[in-house]
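Course assignment 3, question 2. Fill in each field.
Student: A.L.
Task: Predict the tertiary structure for the chain below.
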Amino acid sequence: MTKTKVVSYAVAVAILCLSVALFVSTVNFYATVSALEVISAAALVAFLWLGMLLYVDSLEREPVDCIIFCFSLGVCIPPIIASVVNEWVHENFGQSYSNYLSAPLVEEALKISLVLIVFRLLKKENFGIIDSLLYSSTVCLGLAFSENILYFRPDGFGQTLCVRGVTGILHPLYTSMFVIAWERVGGWKGFILGVFGAVVLHSAWNYAVHQHRPFIVDLIIWVVPSLSGVLAIMIADARREAGIVMNRLVEVPEDERVLLSKRYRRLWELMKLWVRLRYNESVALDKYYLASTSLAFARENQLDETKLLEKFESARKAVQGDKQ
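Answer field:
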């Protein structure tokens, strides 16, 4: 990851956000709520869930430019195509077809297409199902960001913010059905099962929220079981990845292996911001974790480890130097 890439992607996202803000201001959708407030609210919902997902991936930090790239894809491509198609279906066939058939099919097809492109482009950064879910969820949160802008209205702005905040994980949750099937089953069978699961869950939620039941009931019936299943799979895979790191790095002595443990990494994720602010320096432990994970998975997949081993030894010496 280079600073040039980060800056370029950040500028791209800023331009997209500014374009949406100008569009909202021009057409005057929001009489009493400014475009800036709408953009800020939508961004708050998206980045809240994105932050939680990034925390789950404690074994190996994904490059910032990759996260920005995935989010930008979700922001600009699916909302435009989906809105045009869904509007056409609504005008010609009615709202029911648009809500329960067109929206799930079109939106999931767009998200899954982008997710497969991301998997192909970022193949070297993908170590397992957790990374796959993180990248797919980032694409989906980009779509949710743009979609949320259209949901916010002057009347009931606070209530809408709360509801969209709770349901901000829905788009990543739908597409996670595809990612899990793609990673666990594979091939055409996994592809078909994944697409079917994503579309059915999306359509079922759209149908449920139009049945005039209490909102909490729909969450308990549809979101809680699905989200619990995805989290269970992520936890199991996190343990598997932690085991790979511990078992493959045999040259690390016993007294240093605590640094590689999953529990220590979780603790570091909570305290490293304070350490950075307190000491105002780049912390070598981040590079050590990235190098250790990359080397362990290279050995697991029987890939060339020469350069990775050099980076690991260099990062390890830096950590040992900080401890002395």
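Instructor remarks: The two ends are 29 Å apart (CA to CA). The chain has two domains: 3-234, 249-323.
Grade: pending
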